[in-house]
Amino acid sequence: MARLNKRFLDKTLTDAATAAKDTTHWDDELKGFGLRVQPGGALSWVIMYRTTEGRRLRKHTLGSARKMTPDEARKEARRKLALVDQGSDPAADKKAAHAAMSVIELCDLYTETVADQIKPSTLKMDKSRIECHVKPLLGRRSVRSLTVEDIERFQMDVAAGKTAKPREENGRAGLRSGGRGVAARTVGMLGTILEFARRRKVITENPARAVKKFETGKNQRFLSLDEIAKLGKAIREAETENKTGIAAIRALLMTGCRREEILGLPWAWLDSKARCLRLGDSKTGYQIRPLGRAAIENFEAQRSPKSESPWVFPSDRGDGHFVGLPRVLERLCKGAKIEGVKIHVLRHTFSSVAAELGYSELTIAGLIGHSTRGVTARYAHIPDNALLSAADAVSQRIADALDGNKQTSKVINLRSLKSGAKNV
After folding, report:
1. Residue range(s) defining the domain that contains residue 274
2. Is 164 in the same domain as 203?
3. Where does the pLDDT of residue 41 fall: very low under 50, low under 70, confident under 90, or very high at 90 and above?
4. 351 vs 393: CA distance, rounded Å
5. What's the rounded Cα separation, in Å, for the pair 188 and 182?
6. CATH no. for residue 32?
7. Is 317 found in the same domain as 292?
8. Which of 63, 309, 387, 394 suits a disulfide with 290, CB 3.0-4.6 Å?
9. How many domains does the chain have?
């Protein structure tokens, strides 16, 4: 037994990651008050008590020790133990509450619990899907009453557009409709929420596990070198077009980065000397992304001694970064007479050019930041020389096409080299 205070908690937090078994440390002052340590590092405040009949020994979780201070937990423990003396049973009350919990209550509990555990952008998207699709269709249902058939019907309803509604943000017109892709992603998120409920013992089985999600039909559109050349010509002829937007489009093409990684790029994350981006908040967390020389030149061209903006691509108004890229790309593609081009097509184009040059899937994954097994471990700390060489070749080929330069360099098929074939 020990005094469960801040000093004891800090020491336990340090040792928690190496805990080999489930252990509960009991307080030497307040009987029945303890700190539970589980393998993997989970810590929670608990109380142990007998029901008023004295027949059953129960353990009840008060909350996470990473969120509740020892003083807060001790105060809550005293309150709950006092209720036990009055005939209450906190564990049974919690079980009854779980039995009656609605999908709305579960979703709210989930978003509140994970708010500091996932990226803000992911949380924002989850909340949007919950409000747009989950709550209108399933919100009033009891979590425990949900079946596989309910989730399958939910997926079909979202895909059919039953939750479509007018757009209200940023002046965009039309409907926010469903579709098979939206339905599949929403079911995936709902499955995560129901798994959270299973871990909390609200339910014993996750009904979303058995649901086959719709195929999303991922967009495989990319620009050919001829289309890149047409886009470059349209850029050179667009004298009144937004220069920041044009530079951002070139950056996306020559790096293979995601839109938010480029538009939200601060100067502090650009390391021109080491020829890389040190992304502090990519889709898969912190990453180092290698850059070709042509891409670096495009970035450095945005520097202005008169500008105090922290962003590489600053907004025309205010202190934020540039956000008007979709419209700039739409106007340029219209001028180039190219159809079906969304911003993510620029990322696909970088990968396509890399594949045309003969680079392996592993190398391409390292260039664009995919969390493929082996890539993270291999390229996590410094830009690999092989990747820098590949980034040079890909970005230069795209820059040449954009600027209308003739391809004077010889393309070497690396796959042929590996098989011992001669290059001609």
Report:
1. 225-418
2. yes
3. confident
4. 12
5. 10
6. 3.30.160.390
7. yes
8. 387
9. 3
Residue 12 has pLDDT above 60, yes or no: yes
**Among the listed residues 180, 108, 98, 113, the one whose alpha carbon sits nearest the alpha carbon of residue 143:** 98
Residues 6+ apart with CB under 8 A from 241: 235, 328, 331, 332
- Lowest average pLDDT, out of 26-35, 179-188, 377-386, goes to 377-386
Query: Residue 307 pLDDT > 90, yes or no?
Result: no
Are both 296 and 320 inside the same structural domain? yes
Q: Could you tell me which residues come within 8 angstroms of residue 404 by beta carbon, excluding any fewer than 6 positions away? A: 229, 232, 233, 236
353 Ramachandran zone, left/alpha/beta (phi>0; psi -120 to 50): alpha
Residue of 154, 374, 12, 23 whose CA lies nearest to 4: 12
Please check whether residues 206 and 229 belong to one and the same domain.
Answer: no
- Per residue in 205-214, pLDDT (tens digit) is 999 998 998 8
Cα–Cα distance list, 249 to 289, 293, 318 (Å): 17, 16, 21
Answer yes or no: do 142 and 30 share one domain.
Answer: no
256 and 179 share one domain: no
Which pTM does this prediction carry?
0.56
More confident residue, 178 or 212: 212
With respect to residue 219, please indicate whether it lies within any of the assigned structural domains: no
User: Is the distance from CB of 32 to CB of 49 less than 8 angstroms?
Assistant: yes
CA distance 253 to 314: 19
Any domain includes 97: no
Is the same domain home to 325 and 194?
no
Contact between 385 and 276 under an 8 Å Cβ cutoff? The reply is no
